[in-house]
TrEMBL record:
It comes from Acipenser oxyrinchus oxyrinchus. This is Taste receptor type 1 member 1-like. It is found in: Cell membrane. GO terms for cellular component: plasma membrane. Its main location: membrane.
Length: 434
């Protein structure tokens, strides 16, 4: 049975990691806000660090703390913490007398996301899993009632497959792939971002409005990019648009430089003036760095929502030389008090900069602790703080914020809360899912 295979793989992977990796825990109080106890727990998956994208012959678990600090992912995690602080506040009418806790995971790579997903699943305290009945309270004592994230559609497919088995509601803030809407395959997957179907149609309407009928379409080499590129190309003819050139954008590195130059050469040779780029912000940044280097100018670039408003692209040196950039974006929203919360959080973390990591070798959960460290979060100086607070995607942070509130409202109803108190009781994730 497919679900049994997933579960078996989960436990086999957990055992393998537990005996092949060193584990560690941090000195008391030194962990960078990756967890907080509560009556009910929410798990969060955030790319606080970004993998260098180095191709490896075999899958390898990366130490996220050694990777590139990802300001965007940092803001996403802080948005979850801020929402929970508001909900847990003494003046909140939501969940009175109830404290929501969290466990945040740094998913800097696919292997880190897999490990985090399996760790969440391993804490569900299910007995007799070969005869699992999710509605039988006797054998189901879950720790996590909901999962927020991850950011990538590619990662979301993995997490949604496992969370769907346990019927743990998963709310992604950036995974827009249309295939994730299949409730038969992903029964517990939800999101606070529109699916790619809507932005594909918006792009085609934009192209049609300006009579741009001879175009190139590029997509980054993950599910988000390839599915978006494919969907747009399939629908283009219905709008009278010809896709003269189509190519995939890899992660930028010395190994892929020749491939990316070939993509740029294809754009030049087909003599298109309009290029649609369906890409994640990180890969779009690498691609446009090379476009600038190759002095490609006077083009119209139409961007997908993931990179169109991203500072990773807009702050590239000489980015204005590439021509005109138009993009799809979700309407921005405000989070009152969020910037002040982040400033306080950064100041608090700076005071922990000298605390040390203490390594041990005991449980599977402790293995993960080794990879949940953010030294750079504690070492931000005044210049870094200003840059950090000025440059971030408020929409994605708002998506996280609303996802947390969605879980809180569902739990509020489930616990029969009134204005003064809630009926604290054991809650199963499938009940929160509704």
């Amino acid at each position: 049975m497919a679900f049994s295979s997933v579960l078996l793989f989960t436990h086999l992977c957990a055992v393998t990691l537990a005996y092949s990796e060193p584990s560690c825990t941090e000195a008391p109080g030194s962990q960078f806000d990756f967890q907080q106890d509560g009556d009910y727990m929410i798990a969060g998956l955030f790319p606080v660090h970004e993998s260098l994208g180095i191709t490896r012959p075999v899958p390898e678990l990366q130490d996220c703390n050694t990777e590139i600090f990802n300001k965007h992912g940092y803001h996403l995690m802080q948005a979850m913490r801020f929402a929970l602080e508001e909900i847990n506040g003494a003046t909140s009418a939501l969940l009175p007398g109830v404290k929501l806790g969290y466990e945040a995971y740094d998913i800097c790579s696919e292997s880190a996301n897999i490990l985090a997903t399996f760790n969440i699943a391993s804490k569900q305290n299910i007995e007799h899993q070969d005869e699992l009945q999710l509605t039988t309270e006797t054998h189901y004592d879950p720790k996590t009632i909901a999962v927020i994230g991850p950011d990538s559609s590619t990662y979301a497919f993995t997490t949604a497959s496992v969370m769907g088995y346990y019927l743990i509601p998963q709310i992604s803030y950036e995974s827009s792939n249309e295939l994730l809407s299949n409730k038969r395959l992903y029964p517990s997957f939800f999101r606070t971002i529109p699916t790619d179907r809507y932005q594909v149609r918006a792009m085609l309407q934009l192209l049609s409005e300006f009579h741009w009928t001879w175009i190139a379409v590029l997509g980054s080499d993950e599910d988000y990019g390839t599915q978006g590129m494919q969907s747009l190309s399939e629908l283009a003819l219905k709008y009278g648009i010809c896709v003269a050139y189509q190519a995939t954008i890899p992660s930028y590195s010395e190994d892929t430089r020749a491939q990316m130059l070939q993509v740029i050469k294809g754009i030049v040779q087909t003599k298109v003036n309009v290029v649609v780029v369906f890409s994640s912000n990180r890969k779009a940044s690498g691609f446009f760095s090379l476009v600038i280097e190759q002095n490609i100018t006077n083009k119209v670039w139409i961007g997908s929502e993931d990179w169109s408003m991203s500072t990773l692209v807009s702050m590239l040196p000489k980015i204005k030389s590439i021509g005109s950039v138009m993009g799809i974006s979700v309407k921005a929203a405000e989070i009152p008090g969020f910037a002040e919360f982040e400033a306080r959080s950064i100041e608090s973390e700076n005071s922990k900069a000298n605390e040390e990591l203490v390594c041990q070798s005991e449980t599977f959960s402790e293995i993960l602790a080794c990879y949940q460290v953010c030294d750079q979060c504690r070492l931000l100086n005044s210049t870094d703080v200003h840059s950090l607070l000025e440059t971030f995607d408020i929409q994605s942070s708002f998506n996280v914020y609303t996802a947390v509130y969605a879980v809180a409202h569902a739990l509020h109803q489930l616990l029969g809360c009134d204005s003064e108190e809630c009926q604290k009781k054991q809650v199963h994730p499938w009940q929160v899912r509704g």
